Structure formats: structure tokens, C-alpha cells
Amino acid sequence: MPDYLHRRDFLKAAAIAAGPAAFPARGANDKVNIGWIGVGTRGYAGLDWMHSAAPNDVKITAICDTYQGYIARAKDRMQTIWGNAPATYLDYRDLLADKSVDAVFIMTPEHLHHDMTIAALKAGKHVYIEKPLAHTIEEGFDIVRAWQQSGKIVQVGTQNRSSSLYKKAKELILQGCIGDVHYVRAFWYRNSLADDPAWRYVIPPEATPQNTDWNRFLGTASQRPWDSQRYFQWRLYWDYSGGISTDLLVHQTDIVNFMLDKTVPRSCMASGGIYRWTDKTDDREVPDTLSAIYEYGGNFHINYSCYFGNERYGYGEQVCGNEGTIEVMNRQDLYFTPEAFKGKPPASVKARQAIHLNAKKDFNEADGAINHFRNFIQSVLGNEKPIAPPPVGQQAAISGHMATLSFKNQKKIVWDEAANTYHFV
User: Fold this and answer.
1) H helices of 25-102, where?
2) Average predicted confidence (pLDDT) for the chain
3) Using DSSP, how many helices (H) and how many strands (E) does the chain show?
4) What is the pTM for the complete model shown?
5) Which of 16, 160, 199, 201 could hold 255 in an S-S bridge, CB 3.0 to 4.6 Å?
6) DSSP, res 199
7) How far apart are CA 346 and CA 326, in angstroms?
8) Using CA atoms, how far apart are residues 326 and 317, in angstroms rounded to an integer?
């Protein structure tokens, strides 16, 4: 077991998180200066989300990316939405050296999370780090240790926890609306036409080795010649991504943890493959089809499935209690349905009314991302605590990594709670 992180400390840290930030005393008009690392697809969208989340509390003073085209696009957007021209960097370490930057958002491929997050903490910055926390279980524990030593606020981007819809689902479960819960079914289904393969994002035609810093993108990954597909479509390759397991699944195992007060599963068995996107010219490595079965302590089970060839059922979690079911569908709709018991429900169950809540109509939310950004900033200001600190992010990431490891090794993987490690059976 790592001597710096006993299981008891790991789980307690998840519950306690970080105390209010010791943010330096500032004038009423001063703002939290933000450095934005990664302005690709999600990072670029995040510039707008931050403007919705905390326009009066922050100023984005610096942006960083290894593709100059993304930097130019982000500068234009910053001028349009925020009305300022941030400093620009190709190397995140140069941005971190700017002492005026109080906090950073790291919106990069997952293989870069470890080094960037630890470097940011060592530089004295608060950190918002996209999920998964890290590319491996071991790297995740490194980040938890660095956070514990830093005294800084860190928020992991598992934003469902900040969704009012999921908070309501948790409340209903705690109230006993669905009785005892031993089984959850979670799924994420997508589809697209043959000319739009899954995760094959458009490659800017103007991108070249001259305006894209390939070596900085690779970081500690295996060295190889410039490859625009690997750069712009990185989710498809094991060197940079865990695929479905760490890009999608972790959101859903994490929110099940949140709703039901779970942590790390005892075991996982995963299977799947590349079944849908099989064109000979497609060199993807990660599966487009994945199923994973999780067993937790307390007689609890998650049945997870993901397929990139049919979108009929979309995205959802179905929490199946002995007395009712709570479904959250597409991050937009919450349904509570009491059990019928073959038409003879007990009076206490019969009295419960079905519920339907819609995120936009009832909470004025698209999803939890804007709330999650706001919670991070308010935590930096000392007004709140982060809802997804590193120990919580690590718990979510472990479930994803367990699925990847089970799939790759074609074996059942078991988590050793006492040693904070795994083995195969």
C-alpha cells in the first residue's frame, strides 16, 4: 500500500474534502485570474460556460494550447464574449510561471492530466481538472497526494454531481422513495452516419507540424511521427485515452456513487470490441462497444453498457429499488415510478405518486457543467467546498480504469481495499 495514502485517509478525504480556500484579501472589484490550458473542443466551449457561471468573479487572463489554430480561435472568442485579450502560451509551464494566475482549468487529453495538475499545484495554483483524474490508477493517487500536500482547491470535472436533477434524485433515494437498492442499470448509446464515425472529429485542413506542437502533445506518451488523427482524434488511441471507460462510463459510475453513497467497486468484468466502426482505413484502438458488470460491497451491482451504433435509448441511469425506480435520462429528465407489485402494492407504496422533472423546465439547467464551474470558483473564494475533490475523482476514475484493465486482459479485476490496488482472477 502506498505509504502516503492509507485507505482510511483516502475515504475520509473524500468526505471532508478541502476547507475554505485561503484566498488573499482583495478589493471588491478584484477577480480570480484564470489560466486556461487546452482550448480544443471542450476547452473552447468552457470559455462560454465560465462566462455563464461566474462572469463577475473571474477573469481569464491566459490561454494555452499546442495548436496555434485553437489559440487564434479562442482569442477571438475571448474578445467577443469576455472583452479582453488574454496572454497566450504554447507551453503550459510558461503559463504556470505567471504569478498573477490564481487558478487553472486543465481541459486537455487525459494522458497529460497527471503532469499538468501536479505542476500547477506546485506552482501554487488552484486547479479544475477534467475527468478522468488521470490516465492510470497510480497517476491518480499521485495527484491525490499532491493535492493533500498543497492546501489548494481542486475540482474534478465529474459535473453530474452539480446537476440539480441528480441532487433531487439523491434526495428522493435518501427519503426512501424507492426502498432498498441493490441494482442499477446505466447506459450510453450513440450513433452516426458512415461519413461521421464516432470520435473522428474534423481535422482542421490548415493544421501542420509547423503550427502544432506535436512533441508537447505527446508528453510522456510513446514517441512517434506527427499524426494529425492521433492529435485531433486522441480519444481513439490507448496512449492518450481509456476510451469509453474513462470518457463516458466514469460519469455514470461516479453519479451512482453520488446518489447512493458508494465509493469503489469490489470487482469488474468487462467485454466488448470494435464492432461498429470497422472500415479498413480506420485505425482506432479503443472499443466502440463495451459492457461492464460491477460488484460493490453491501450486495450492490451496476450493469453498464455503451454502444456507438444505436441511439434509441440515449443516456441514462436506472436506479432499481425494491419499492420503486428512479430514472435520469439524457441529463434532462428525472422519473420516479413506484412498484406495482402485480397490482397489489402495500399502502405505503401505493400512496407514492409518480414524478417527472425536467432540467430546463424545473431547474433552468442544461446539465451540471455551469454549476460545477461555479462551485469551483466559489470554493476558491472560500464560500463553498468543492463537490468533486480529488479523492472523489479518483474513486470515479478507478471504476473506469478497472473496466479498461478487465477489457484489455480479458479477466475479472478485483479491487483490494486494504492495499489500494488490484489483481486479476
Assistant:
1) 41-53, 68-81, 92-96
2) 94
3) 15, 16
4) 0.94
5) 160
6) T
7) 19
8) 8
